[in-house]
Structure formats: C-alpha cells, structure tokens
Amino acid sequence: MERRGAPRSLRRRVVGSSSRRRRRGGGLFALGESPLVTPDLHRSDPLTVLAQAAPRATGALVVGGARTDGPDGGSGGGTVADGSASALAALAAQGWTCPTPLPEGFRVADVRDDARRGVLEIDLEAPGGEAVVREQTGLLDTSALAGGETWDVDGRRVHVLSEEPWHVVWQSGDTVIDVVADTEQETVAALVAAFPARDYDAGVPARISRGWTTMTGALGTS
Q1: How crowded is residue 52: how many other Cβ atoms within 10 Å of its Cβ?
Q2: Per residue in 13-27, is it b (16+ CB within 10 Å) or e — as a string?
Q3: Could you read off the pLDDT of 99-134 as tens digits, one per residue?
Q4: Cα–Cα nearest to 104, from 88, 132, 127, 121
Q5: Which end of the chain, N or C, is surrounded by fewer C-beta atoms within 10 Å?
C-alpha cells in the first residue's frame, strides 16, 4: 500500500517548530508594548528643569559636564556648531530622536543620559534664552493631557503644559519628547519642527520589532 503524506515524526517536528515560533512571536509582541509616559504636570517642574540645565558655554562644547575647546575634545580646530552636530549624530546613532539640523541660533551645551530612568536630556543654548529637551521611549499618555492647549506644528500635535516658561510635549515615533524653554513661542515651535514628524506605529510588526529591540538590549546583543 502506498504511503502518503509526511511521516508522523516529521509532522511532529514541523508542528513543534511552528508552535515554538508562535511562542517566540507572542513573547516579542508582549515585550513590544510601549510603556505609558505621563508628563510631570506640576507647575514647578519646568522651572526646576531650567534651573538644573547646564550653564552657557562660550566658544566650547560642554558634554557630560566636561568642557572641551573643540568637538573632538582637542584644543581649537572646531566650533560649537560643529560640536553640536557631532553630539546629535552620536545620539542618533544610538537610536535617539534628534533634530537635523538644529535651527539657527541653537547650540548643544550639555547631554545627559539617565540610564536608570531611561531619559535623555539635551541642554541647549537658544536665541534669547535656554531650552532643555528630554526624550523617553514610550507612548504619550494623552488622556492625562485632555482639555489642554495644543499646537499643530507642521503636522505634529504638540501639547502645551505651561507658558512661563514654555513646556511642550509630543510623540515622535516610539519616543516622547518634551521641551522646556524660556524663549519666544516662535523659537520653541522652530525647535519642535526640527525633530522628525513620525506617528506612533501600533501595528503588530512594529510591536514585534520593539520587542526584539528590548530583548537584544537586555541580553547585550544586537
């Protein structure tokens, strides 16, 4: 009698392999759930942020609290603008969302990466004042901001948390970005517009991709 179909042992291996793939996919899907990010709505928060920002640097770039005369840490041969571009390029290479390029009159004064909280802070010299950018991977909790003022900055829905100083927050892809600045509204809007306009992707492939990134990051692999 002619035997048809795959042997039982082969069918079991195929079914088992398929089940393992489904379990792995389900695990990555679960890992890919973005944490909800709720901004600090206390009125003192933006004032505290500006008070703790790095002091202005004249003719030098300050990164991580260390003053350098050039973007490569050497003496001379570079400008603050060059250093700002290098600092932002390095952050972008690490997966952070960065403006490309900074608007006219902005300079990077300091960069701090709080690994424990998962927050990146970029202190900026800005026209007429200072600005602090904070970034955090996650999904903006818009329900906590319901009823507040919003701006439309070239398609970006920006939530205004305070005006003196300015404190705004918005979603850019998988990143929540907030800016505190003691400058004019137009200056803040120009900084916001310099960041990529990206919608949050809640689809299954994107969530699995985020799960893979989370898993490989935890394992120290790529």
Answers
A1: 11
A2: eeeeeeeeeeeeeee
A3: 878 999 999 999 998 888 889 999 999 999 999 999
A4: 127
A5: N
What pLDDT score was predicted for residue 220? Answer: 52
**35 Cβ neighbours under 8 A, 6+ residues apart:** 137, 138, 139
Full-model pTM = 0.69
Closest to 83 in 3D by CA, of 75, 73, 92, 93 = 73
* pLDDT per position as a tens digit, 3-34: 455 566 555 554 455 455 555 545 544 444 56
DSSP character at residue 152:
E
Q: Residue 203: phi, psi to the nearest 5?
A: -70, 165
> Which residue ranges make up each domain of the chain?
35-199
Q: Copy the structure tokens of residue 96.
A: 């952070």
Count the residues in the chain. Answer: 222
Coil, helix or strand at residue 39: coil
Distance CA 79, CA 59 (A): 7
Cα–Cα dist 162/83, whole Å:
31
CATH of 35-199, one of 3.90.870.10, 3.40.50.261, 3.40.228.10, 3.30.200.100: 3.30.200.100
